[in-house]
Design goal:
It is a single chain. The protein has about 270 residues and is mainly alpha-helical. It folds into two domains: about 140 residues, no CATH class; about 130 residues, no CATH class. The chain contains twelve helices and four strands, in the order E-E-H-H-H-H-H-H-H-H-E-H-H-E-H-H. The protein has a two-stranded antiparallel sheet. Strands 3-4 form a two-stranded antiparallel sheet. The longest helix is centred in the first third of the chain and has 24 residues. It starts with a strand and ends with a helix.
Length: about 270
């Protein structure tokens, strides 16, 4: 790495030198060095104990990010790492990891960093990812789980209706149980981070509305036919999750959370 230039908003612009050329492929050493330069640029004078903790936190992000990049390297354009806006996003993630460590979802941050390098992204997707990276450090696991539940209910349609019951159980176990006591003030706070909008409106029977809107061709829609889905959506109503609507930033985060159940959901085709 032979050059460093400060750019706007305190981000660090790095130009790849002969010792770190991502055009030649991905290596853990290059990935680790990239994050190390960002870390030292942001935290040059920490006390020893604080510096050790921060370095350990960033190391966790390095390992997680490298694993994500390696898994999907054929879909990535690693040369993007020389672009200032991409480096700004990685810099934001590095600062968040150093400061908060396991208090934030480092795996989720890594997924977004990987997504930022995908070849097929357009400018809009890139901007959504950049904004999502800035929002994630403000959200606890409880709030992130709420985003996943809300997006599943409000925006996703399942192709195979026979999978609904199993997916409802998976959503309950993976996400809803984590945010089962979320308050209205926390929903409002999510909106304040820039992930959505909050409206104090009355709800109704989401189970009936969900099936009528998403699956109008189903003839039998009773709760006895879909008991797991019914329990899941009744909890959704009890928590008044309908009061929060996700914008594209919130949807990007929710989709990456939902990867834990659905596998890799393509952002381009899943954003609404």
């Amino acid at each position: 790495m032979n050059q460093k230039a400060t750019v706007k908003d305190g981000s660090i612009s790095l130009q790849s030198g002969a010792d770190m050329n991502f055009n030649l492929g991905l290596s853990f050493e290059n990935c680790e060095r990239f994050f190390d330069i960002l870390f030292k640029a942001n935290f040059p004078k920490l006390e020893i104990i604080a510096a050790q903790a921060a370095e350990e936190n960033v190391s966790k992000l390095v390992f997680s990010t490298y694993k994500k990049l390696e898994e999907r390297v054929e879909l990535l354009e690693l040369s993007k790492l020389a672009e200032p806006d991409v480096q700004h996003t990685f810099n934001t993630a590095t600062q968040a990891a150093a400061k908060k460590g396991n208090k934030i979802d480092l795996n989720l941050l890594s997924e977004l960093l990987q997504a930022r390098l995908e070849k097929e992204n357009d400018d809009y997707i890139d901007q959504c990812i950049e904004a999502a990276v800035e929002v994630i450090p403000k959200l606890t696991n409880e709030l992130l789980s709420a985003l996943a539940v809300i997006h599943f209910v409000q925006n996703l349609t399942i192709d195979n209706i026979n999978e609904l019951e199993g997916l409802a159980t998976a959503m309950q176990t993976r996400f809803l149980n984590t945010c089962n006591n979320i308050s209205l003030s926390k929903l409002s706070m999510i909106a304040g981070t820039g992930a959505g909008s909050y409206a104090n409106v009355m709800g109704s029977n989401t189970f009936k509305e969900y099936l009528d809107r998403r699956y109008p061709n189903i003839t039998i829609k009773g709760e006895d036919k879909f008991p797991n889905l019914s329990r899941f959506l009744n909890s959704y109503d009890r928590l008044s999750l309908h009061k929060l609507s996700l914008n594209t930033v919130g949807q990007v985060i929710a989709l990456k959370m939902l990867n834990k159940i659905f596998g890799n959901l393509p952002l381009k085709s899943c954003l609404v």
